Structures are given as C-alpha cells and as structure tokens.
TrEMBL record:
It catalyses: L-aspartate 4-semialdehyde + pyruvate = (2S,4S)-4-hydroxy-2,3,4,5-tetrahydrodipicolinate + H2O + H(+). It comes from Rubripirellula lacrimiformis. InterPro entries: Aldolase_TIM, DapA, DapA-like. Belongs to the DapA family. Keywords: Amino-acid biosynthesis, Cytoplasm, Diaminopimelate biosynthesis, Lyase, Lysine biosynthesis, Schiff base. This is 4-hydroxy-tetrahydrodipicolinate synthase. GO terms for cellular component: cytosol.
Length: 301
C-alpha cells in the first residue's frame, strides 16, 4: 500500500494544556510540559488547540505560546501549531506566523459559529493550504464548531497538495472509514477512547488529551496497534478507557485533565473563564478514577 500523505505525523501527538498563573500564560510550566512529553517519547506536540484553551487567548498570547513551544522543542519532536479561526484572514495570519517561527504543521479547526456551507469549508482550507508550505491537518469537530465537514468535502480537499491529515473528532467510525477508503490522507483520532477502533480501520495515531497525563501508555497503545498487535492494544485500550471516558466526561475539556494534572503534582495552573473548576463531587470521582488507573499520588484539590 502506498504511503499516505502526512504519515510522518503518525503516532502520539499531545494537545498540550496552556498553563495560567494570575491570569497570565505561565511559560515556566509550559516548558515543563514540553520537557515531560519529550522525555516520554511523544512524537508531536500540539500547542493552542482545544485543550490549550485557545478561544480565551489573546492574539499575542496565542503567538507566544506557539513560539515558546517551538523554541523549547528545538527539533526534538514535531510541532503542529493550532492556528485555526472562524475568520479565514485570521487563520492565514496566525498560520503564516507559526510557519515563520518553525512549526512543522498546522492544525486547522473547521470555522466555528458562522457555520459555512461545504463550499465555504473547501474555500477556507484551500486558501490556507495554497498560502503556506507546511502540512495542514483539517480538524473536524462538529460538537465544538456547530457543523460537520462532509466526507465529500474532505475528498475534494485531499486533492490539494498542502492538505495532508485529518483530525477526525466526529465520533463516527464510518466517517473515518469513508475518509480512509477514498483519500490518501493520514487520519488521526480526535477522541482518545476511539483511538484503537479508528486504528483498526487504518488511522495512524491520535492527537490526545489523556496524553498530557499518561503519555507512556498512550504511546504503547498506538505502537501496538500500528504493529498489528491488537491483543496488547486491546488491553491498553481497556486500561485507559476510564481516563478517556469517565475522566474526560466529567466536564468540558480541558477542565478534567487540568484538574487531574494538579492532583498528580504536575500543576498546570488555573482555568480561564468561562472555564470553571470541577465541583467537589466530580473532583472525588476524578480522584477515584486516577487511583484506579494506578496514579496513587492523586490527592484532593
């Protein structure tokens, strides 16, 4: 089988948290996260995605987080910068800046709130792909954006040289199968709990939230599935499932994972409004979930 476009991004990518302290980006903690991921063997780091609370960042903060991550990584892993917007002009500006800083790829979320037509989606991504010379990962997450990018539109986009990947977060295995069966794009899971099912039909990895907390087991799962060792991959899937499902189901991402990081002693700071902390009951459920996984250092917050 011919190699897919974007296959160099196969494996575990982690959508890292943006740490805040006194309502400012905490660069020291940001760099600590990067070092933690590199030490674990994470293939690619994704700053300023959904997990990075991108909607709450100012333009200057957005650019600074990407720049700091690129500088800290210093070529030891790939960096896929979250530079999407519901304004094509804004997405172009952010992406040009990230490319100039040295980003290896760009994660481009579907334009949100204004809900373009399928032709609007196509023209938006086409404008970005033809403007820059780094790979584009199309991020399909209708639960956040309000509208799904249809398979037909992704098929059209696959003919553009710059479109290399899809982060598939529709929650539909059929959607993943249709993309893989009709395009040469690399598909990356956008839902931790669906990583193994999606890899079983040809996806090549995940852009992970849970990987912030436990990158090692996520790497093992992806590597086992890629090697065709589905017995090992299934065991890891079931071990990780409570973190992927119970933990992340407690509240909107990144509230639970940010709370979990604090519980295990890798504090990533406060949330920024409109994100608010977990209540006491959910904190206890989270602590029990972390204990059950084996993170015995988890403490109440």
């Amino acid at each position: 089988m011919a190699q897919r476009k974007g296959s160099e991004f196969a494996g575990l990518s982690v959508a890292i948290i943006t740490p805040f302290s006194d309502d400012k980006v905490d660069v020291v903690r940001l760099r600590e996260q990067v070092e933690f991921q590199i030490a674990a063997g994470t293939k690619c780091i994704v700053p300023v995605g959904t997990t990075g609370e991108s909607p709450t960042l100012s333009h200057d903060e957005h650019e600074r987080v990407i720049s700091e991550v690129i500088q800290c990584v210093a070529g030891r892993a790939k960096v896929m910068a979250g530079t999407g917007s519901n304004s094509t002009a804004e997405a172009l500006r952010l992406t040009r800046r990230a490319a100039a800083e040295g980003a290896d790829a760009t994660l481009q979320v579907a334009p949100y709130y204004n809900k373009p037509t399928q032709e609007g989606f196509y023209q938006h991504f086409k404008a970005i792909a033809e403007d820059i010379d780094i790979p584009v990962c199309v991020y399909n997450i209708p639960g956040r954006t309000g509208k799904e990018i249809d398979v037909d539109t992704i098929q059209r986009l696959s003919s553009l040289d710059g479109i290399k990947m899809v982060k598939e977060a529709t929650g539909k295995l059929d959607q993943c199968s249709a993309i893989l069966g009709t395009t040469d794009l690399t598909v990356l899971s956008g839902d931790d709990s669906l990583t193994l099912p999606m890899m079983s039909v040809g996806a090549e990895g995940v852009i992970s939230v849970v990987g912030n907390l436990v990158p090692g087991p996520m790497i093992e799962l992806v590597q086992a599935a890629a090697a065709g060792d589905f017995e090992t991959a299934r065991k890891l899937h079931h071990r990780l499932f409570a973190l992927c499902n119970t933990m992340l189901g407690l509240a909107t991402n990144p509230i639970p994972v940010k709370t979990a990081m604090q519980m295990v002693g890798r504090d990533t700071g406060e949330l920024r409004l409109p994100m608010t902390p977990l209540d006491a009951k959910d904190c206890e459920t989270l602590r029990e979930t972390l204990f059950a996984f084996g993170l015995q250092e988890a403490t109440a917050v």
